[in-house]
Write a structure and sequence with these properties.
Elements lengths: L9 E6 L9 H8 L5 H9 L3 E3 L2 E2 L11 E6 L12 E5 L3 E6 L16 H8 L6 E2 L8 E7 L2 H12 L4 E8 L7 E4 L3 E6 L3 E6 L8 E8 L4 E7 L6 H8 L10 E2 L3 E2 L18 E9 L6 E5 L10
Parallel strand pairs: 8-17
Antiparallel strand pairs: 1-4, 2-3, 2-4, 5-6, 6-8, 7-8, 9-14, 9-17, 10-13, 11-12, 13-14, 15-16, 17-18
Helix pairs in contact: 1-2
Length: 307
């Protein structure tokens, strides 16, 4: 598919949870997915694009726990993104990929075929790639992809047990920062227009740990290395913003680790918007078949490289 063609559409599937029992079908979609207006969800239900256990239902249909919902989104033209990527290493169990900034990893939002996962499946049609971890759309750098069931199980366990070593480079503003410091600001869901919620710095969130080291102090910026010991969504962006140093160019997170205020008549930013400087430079793990600790690096783009 060229970048100016429509994709094949997508089916979004989910299962009704206990909290939604008795809720009308229209209320369910319009409240959970406020990126579309209520009248748009009603039109989709009435057009038969949304099914309950494979059947067309009215907008007022009351849902029950365990029912299967599916929303058939018609084909659409996805935003243009950089689709090329470099394979740093591959064997029978895994790939190490250098992901460019701007390329989403998994389907979501307006992206299905313009994703790293889809491009991998096109390049290796007989394979079933499984990303072991994620990078934000605007984040560049090294990604670990499982190629075999053994790798998927073994590497996922390392991720859960926090045995994957992940080190990033980020560009923040100038300041009198110590050479090394830790950040342990909890990260959790907060309400946000258009999306319903996103992640930010909140005392009620889950524990999160980052270790920061200053690499270079420049006139208009500071280059830092960040090791994350937990894997909360947008952890580095939120943590550095929480201590007063949001990533340069970040369209969403401001000082304090919360999203920027919504401006009337202007589109609100979302986490997948690009513009910030963040690169996954180093990844270390135990090889699932051969054993032994292996470390890989991915060269950073210009502003994140050493001067």
């Amino acid at each position: 598919m060229s970048q100016n063609q429509c994709n094949q559409g997508w089916i979004y599937r989910e299962v009704v949870d206990a909290q939604a029992t008795g809720q009308a079908l229209l209320d369910y979609y319009s409240q959970r997915y406020p990126h579309s207006q209520r009248r748009e969800w009603q039109a989709r239900i009435e057009a038969g694009q949304i099914l309950v256990n494979g059947q067309i239902q009215k907008p007022t249909y009351p849902l029950a726990q365990g029912q299967h919902l599916s929303y058939q989104r018609p084909p659409w033209q996805e935003p243009s993104v950089p689709l090329d990527f470099e394979v740093l290493y591959e064997d029978e169990d895994l790939w190490l990929i250098a992901k460019p900034s701007g390329l989403p990893v998994l389907p979501g939002g307006g992206f299905v075929e313009h994703t790293l996962l889809h491009q991998l499946q096109r390049r290796y049609p007989q394979e079933h790639p499984v990303p072991i971890h994620r990078l934000g759309r605007g984040t560049s750098g090294i990604m670990l992809i499982a190629r075999s069931p053994l790798a998927r199980q073994h590497l996922s366990q390392q991720l859960r047990e926090r045995r994957l070593y992940k080190r990033y480079r980020a560009l923040i503003g100038p300041g009198a920062l110590p050479c090394r410091f830790d950040i342990d600001q909890p990260i959790g869901k907060i309400a946000y227009p258009r999306l319903g919620y996103l992640y930010g710095a909140t005392p009620t969130g889950k524990a999160a740990q980052s270790q920061v080291m200053v690499l270079e102090r420049r006139t208009a910026a500071t280059l830092v290395a960040v090791r994350i010991l937990t894997g909360r969504p947008h952890q580095i962006r939120i943590h550095l913003a929480a201590v007063g140093y949001p990533l340069l160019g970040d369209p969403l997170y401001q000082r304090g680790g919360l999203p920027k205020p919504i401006v009337a008549d202007s589109p609100s930013a979302i986490p997948s918007d690009c513009g910030y400087w963040l690169h996954a430079q180093t990844l270390a793990f135990e090889h699932p078949r051969h054993g032994g600790w292996t470390t890989w690096t991915c060269p950073p783009p210009g502003p994140l490289a050493d001067k």
